[in-house]
Specification:
With 450 residues, the chain is of the alpha/beta class. It folds into two domains: 187 residues, Glutaconate Coenzyme A-transferase (3-Layer(aba) Sandwich); 242 residues, Glutaconate Coenzyme A-transferase (3-Layer(aba) Sandwich), CATH 3.40.1080.20. The protein has 15 helices and 26 strands. Helix 7 packs across helix 8 and helix 14 runs antiparallel to helix 15. The longest helix is centred in the first third of the chain and has 13 residues. The relative contact order is 0.11.
Length: 450
């Protein structure tokens, strides 16, 4: 096998590469940062001449993307899981969204009984001397989708393709996130700047308090899962303040908070009983500093999401502490993290994966952390309780009440798992904002919950 000759035969322009994409196919373009913009833009330009193609994407953080001009009636449609920059298009119905558990994506998107992705578009490092491209910032569902597409094409189904955009900006990470040139149908050489997140806003006093309550559940040697945003940042700050040590990481997303904990020697991974000495992730999203930290770092590994987010795998980590956010909690412990009534806000992501996984962990704890109130602009800045008698009609239940373990606000921690309805209602009311407790208690009594 002459890999240099194989490379030369597969090298072409983005416009030539996307002409290989058949009508009536599903196209996967990745999660968050490693979206191959040259390939996607070239495909969008073909919209007038194609039929029934769907672009599938999760976490859209390129605000000036070309696919915003697509809609429900165009020849190319968009399925935008976890909408951010395109949230308005999902809410309006111009784009759609597929609600999936994150750990199940590889099976759903490769199994003929569900909805296989025919085309995998990848943003990769330059090929190494052995013929491998690295996906860099995310194995997630992308690697299984790409391997399946290559397999199906070898079996003779020409709907399936693997198209790669070689980008010198992509870090070369470690783990199971490589694809060989023998599985690639077209190569496009085009550098692109990787999307980065802005510096976080300063933490509020309430967020700092929530962080301290969450940190009380973490002891020396625990393994943690943190997301991105103010609450995880507050938890990380609490770790630094309390001098907890020798933490491990098994988390779906690598973010800048992890660097701070590593540099402070709070995270060492030395005491992990499962995959020690390595922080385990499935994708990354953050600043350029994060991407440089990941580059060729043997202490960081990326693996497909059906491994990282598999509850039975998560549960192999003793003393696993999972911390996630939400939009609403009802009196019985139902967690809504995806929508505001009927309006889709985000995606279920891996929240339930890690709630279930922490339960399977010896000494594990899962936490849903949220400020007790919100002050939405459309409400005139008037405070509304995030703990409610019932989820707003149309609201999506992300974590069922039978699975939720702890709910934490700035007023304390409410135990949910294993508690009777009567006891969990009382626990939840105690962590609501004082201005809403009487109303919540009235509603609970009216419904014969307490």
């Amino acid at each position: 096998m002459d890999i240099k000759e194989m490379y030369k035969k597969r090298l072409m322009s983005a416009q030539e590469a996307v002409k290989l994409v058949k009508n009536h196919t599903e196209v996967w373009i990745g999660i968050a940062v490693p979206v191959p913009l040259a390939l996607v833009d070239a495909l969008v330009d073909r919209e007038p001449e194609v039929e029934n193609i769907t672009i599938n994407h999760i976490v859209d953080i390129y605000p000036e993307n070309t696919w915003r001009k697509l809609g429900r009636d165009t020849n190319i449609k968009v399925d935008c899981g976890y909408p951010t920059s395109c949230r308005d298009k999902v809410v309006s119905g111009e784009f759609t969204l597929t609600p999936n558990r994150f750990c199940e994506l590889p099976k759903i998107y490769t199994d003929e009984n569900f909805r296989p992705m025919h085309v995998a578009m990848l943003n990769v490092t330059p090929m190494d001397k052995h013929g491998y491209f690295c996906l860099g910032l995310g194995a997630d569902a992308t690697l299984p989708i790409a391997h399946n597409a290559a397999k199906k094409r070898r079996e003779g189904d020409d709907r399936y393709l693997v198209l790669v955009q070689v980008n010198n900006q992509v870090p070369r990470s470690r783990g199971l996130n490589y694809i060989h040139i023998s599985e690639v149908d077209a190569i496009v050489e085009q550098d692109q700047d990787l999307s980065v997140l802005n510096d976080p806003r300063p933490l509020t006093a309430e967020e700092k308090t929530i962080g301290r309550y969450c940190a009380e559940f973490v002891k020396d040697g625990s393994t943690i899962q943190l997301g991105i945003g103010s609450i995880p940042n507050a938890v990380a700050q609490a770790f630094l303040d309390t001098h907890v040590k020798d933490l491990g990481i098994h988390s779906e997303m690598a973010c800048d908070t992890m660097i701070d904990l590593w540099e402070a020697e709070v995270v060492t991974n030395r005491r992990k009983n499962f995959m020690p000495y390595r922080s385990i992730f499935t994708f990354a999203m953050g600043t350029r500093k994060l991407y440089d930290w990941i580059d060729d770092n043997p202490g960081i590994e990326f693996h497909p999401v059906d491994f990282v987010n598999n509850p039975s795998i998560i549960g192999k980590n003793d003393n696993m502490v999972s911390i996630n956010a939400c939009l609403q909690v009802d009196l019985t412990g139902q967690i809504c993290s995806e929508s505001m009534g009927w309006q889709q806000y985000t995606h279920p992501g891996g929240q339930l994966d890690f709630v279930d996984g922490a339960f399977q962990s010896r000494g594990g704890v899962s936490i849903i952390a949220t400020p007790a109130i919100a002050k939405p602009k459309k409400n005139g800045g008037q405070a509304i309780s995030k703990i409610v008698p019932n989820i707003t009609p149309g609201g999506v239940i992300t974590t069922p009440r039978s699975c939720a373990d702890y709910v934490i606000t700035e007023y304390g921690a409410a135990k949910i798992k294993g508690q009777s309805v009567r006891q969990r209602v009382r626990n939840i009311i105690k962590v609501a904002h004082p201005d809403f407790r009487d109303e919540l208690e009235f509603e609970a009594r009216r419904r014969n919950l307490i």
